Amino acid sequence: MNFTLECEQEVDGRWMAEVPELPGVLAYGSSSADAISKAEVLALRVIADRLENSEAEPVSFRFSLPLSA
Fold it and tell me: Residue 6 sits in which domain range?
């Protein structure tokens, strides 16, 4: 399964990164790299929790970022 990490700058200057395929995986940071890093960690925690609770089958996954991030 592939997950897309979307990152954009908010009006207030903060950066927001999210993984649309995983509801609730959204993180803010002071830079795009900071927000992306936080979102990746959160996504991995969500996936691990789902696997631990037998909510999902083990899958391989890959994060992809748009070139503008």
Answer: 2-53
**pTM score, whole prediction:** 0.77
State the Cα–Cα distance between residues 20 and 41, nearest whole angstrom. 15
Q: Is 49 exposed, middle or buried (0-12, 13-18, 19+ CB in 10 A)?
A: exposed
Residue 62 within any structural domain of the chain: no
69 in a structural domain: no
Cα atoms found within 13 Å of the Cα of residue 52, Cβ hemisphere only: 6
3-class DSSP state of 16: strand
- pLDDT, tens digit, 9 for 90 and up, residues 20-59: 989 999 999 999 999 999 999 999 999 888 888 877 665 6
CB 28 within 8 A of CB 51: no
